[in-house]
Every structure is written in structure tokens, then in C-alpha cells.
Amino acid sequence: MIPIRNMARPSKGESTKKARGFYRGVMKHHFSREVYSRRSLVETVNSMVKRKMGDVVYGKSETSRHKEVLFRCLAHNLRRLIDLKYSP
Predict the structure, then answer these.
(1) How far does CA 82 lie from the centroid of its chain?
(2) Could you read off the pLDDT of 23-80 as tens digits, one per residue?
(3) Do 40 and 67 contact (CB within 8 A), yes or no?
């Protein structure tokens, strides 16, 4: 989730600009800075998985695509565990 930016100045008498649209308002109230600060870690892991295992998912159904991605994540984690265990 990307944080909402205030693109316009508030009207006279308002301290902040009100978010237009229902979901933008919900997101503004429920956005967590702590979770967003880990985005760079998530993007790094996504990049590693795509580089090592490819970026194409071959499953035809939603279930098979979901399983394929989960197995790729499992294989990535096992590879990292083995690399960390046997590295000097």
C-alpha cells in the first residue's frame, strides 16, 4: 500500500484537505507507517525470487497459480537457509 499524498491545499478554515472518495478516506485512517517502512525489504525479496526462479507463473487456474507461488517462496526460503547454514 502506498501512502496518500495531499495534492491540494486545504480550503479556508480547514486544517487538512479531506480525502475524496470512500476508499481513500478509509486508507488514510488505517495506513500504518511501521508496516510501510518494510516495503524495501519486501521489494528486495520479490526481486531475488524473480531473478532466481523466473517471473512467469505457469498455472492455469487461480489455485494452481497460488500453489506455484507458495512453492517458489518455500524453495527460496530453503535455499537461503542452506546458504546461511553452509557459508563460512
Answers:
(1) 25
(2) 777 777 777 777 777 778 888 999 999 999 999 999 999 999 999 999 999 999 999 9
(3) no
End-to-end CA gap in the chain: 38
Cell numbers of 51, please? 531473478
pTM of the entire predicted model: 0.58
- Determine the Cα angle at 8 with ends 7 and 10, to 5°: 135
Which stretches of 1-88 are DSSP H helices? 22-30, 33-36, 39-53, 62-86
Torsion angle of alpha carbons 71, 59, 49, 35, nearest 10°? -80
If 0-12 CB within 10 Å is exposed, 13-18 middle and 19+ buried, where does residue 6 land? exposed
Q: Per-domain residue ranges for the chain?
A: 39-86
**How far is the C-alpha of 87 from the C-alpha of 74, rounded, in Å?**
20
